[in-house]
Design goal:
The chain is mainly alpha-helical and about 100 residues long. About 50% of the residues lie in helices and about 10% in strands. It has a single domain, classed as Winged helix-like DNA-binding domain superfamily/Winged helix DNA-binding domain (Arc Repressor Mutant, subunit A). Strands 1-2 form a two-stranded antiparallel sheet. A hairpin with an 8-residue loop joins β1 and β2. The radius of gyration is 20 Å and the shape is elongated. The mean pLDDT is about 85.
Amino acid sequence: MNRSPVSTEIMDILKKLGITVPRGTMYPLMGTLKRKMLVTRHIEEMDFGHPWMYHVTDAGRQRLSELYNEWTKLNSRLIQLRSQKSIYQYQPLYRHPSL
């Protein structure tokens, strides 16, 4: 794809990755990203109408990089915590009666 994707294409890409984003969620989400200047949007003439095309800004790429780094650190800490088997030895202070 040599052009910026439209919102339905973004939803399709996410769906292929196992992330389902309902249409009613996608448009408000894209609006929030636009207000935070993480994406820009423009209308482009196409065969099927005039859809909004979205483009990630430099600030959006920077924020994505920051989130990726945060996720990587969190994932690493969770793996480390899970490998410490002693964590599973502790009994909860309270156990719900239904458990």
